[in-house]
Write a structure and sequence with these properties.
Length: 146
């Protein structure tokens, strides 16, 4: 009497294992997947236009190559950061950036140390989003205190 449930359990396990193997080895590539040749071409193009920079610890464009269309320059990104720093102040007690209600402040009136501290805090809490072309808070929404 115990053989019947154990046989059906064994049959179910074998069926589940073979169905999973059959699905994982489908010969047709999924829509949007790149072929091996396309990946090699993309890699070669990237290596032709970029070089590793040990100072930055990142890939940079080789001299003579232009950045992709629509990408902001380093100066534009820094200007966006400076604009944010002009209109916001770091509040260490709340661990949050507070907008300044009276309007933009003069960054030239800050000491070098104050500017260094605020820039460090800004870069710690924000990342540049290339797709949206704006600075975004990199902390999870739960960690932000508003």
């Amino acid at each position: 009497m115990n053989r019947k449930p154990s046989l059906s359990l064994a049959a179910a396990l074998v069926l589940a294992a073979t169905a999973t193997l059959a699905q994982s080895q489908s010969p047709a590539p999924s829509a949007g997947a790149m072929t091996r040749q396309e990946v090699k071409i993309e890699r070669d193009e990237f290596m032709r236009s970029h070089q590793w920079d040990n100072a930055y610890g990142n890939w940079v464009l080789k001299p003579g190559f232009e950045a992709p269309a629509g990408m902001k320059t380093r100066a534009e990104i820094k200007a966006a950061r400076d604009e944010f720093l002009r209109t916001h102040r770091w509040d260490p007690s709340g661990d949050v950036w507070q907008p300044i209600p009276e309007g933009p402040r003069e960054l030239s009136k800050l000491t070098r140390e104050q500017m260094r501290i605020e820039t460090r805090e800004f870069l710690r809490t924000h990342d540049w989003d290339v797709a949206e072309e704006r600075w975004v808070d990199k902390r999870p929404a739960k960690a932000r205190k508003r």
